[in-house]
Amino acid sequence: MKILFIFNHEPYDGSDLTWNGLRLAKKLYERGNEVRLFLMNDSVDLARECNKKPEHYDHDLVAMLKDIYNNGIELKVCGTCQARCGLFKNEPYFTPEIKATMNDLAEWVEESDKILTF
């Protein structure tokens, strides 16, 4: 099954929303599903090296994202949002090839069996 996760929220917003979304994506991938992640709005900070885990957080969400990306989960991040969104506007993403467009997201939506938003 092809499952698309769309993240919108700031990673370290005081909730476990992003953490739970990443955990679910990893588990679904481990169960043999094709998993894709698309970050937009303030969630783009999740793909920035400069975004450090706050002291009061148990989990390094940027490291979690990098780990699942390096283990095969597809990742794209909104290019327009890079300059418009997040606490670290205009900071680069941890790898340039993940920068994407709305056309990329539209294609992924059309190809997906299920779409989850976080």
Report the total helices: 4
Order of helices and strands: EHEHEHEHE
Cα separation of the termini: 19 Å
What does the largest sheet look like?
5 strands, parallel
Helix content bin: 25-40%
Number of strands: 5
Unreliable segments of 5+ consecutive residues: none
Q: What is Rg?
A: 13 Å
Q: How would the global form be characterised?
A: globular
Strand content: 15-25%
Q: Order of strands across the widest beta sheet?
A: 4-3-2-1-5
Helix/strand-derived class? alpha/beta
Round the mean pLDDT to the nearest integer and report it.
96
How would you portray this structure in words?
The protein is built from four helices and five strands; from the N terminus they run βαβαβαβαβ. The chain has helices at residues 17-30, 61-70, 79-84, 102-111, and strands at residues 2-7, 34-39, 74-78, 99-100, 114-117. It has a five-stranded parallel sheet with strand order 4-3-2-1-5, sandwiched between helices. β2, α2 (61-70) and β3 form a beta-alpha-beta unit. α1 (17-30) runs parallel beside α2 (61-70). It is globular.
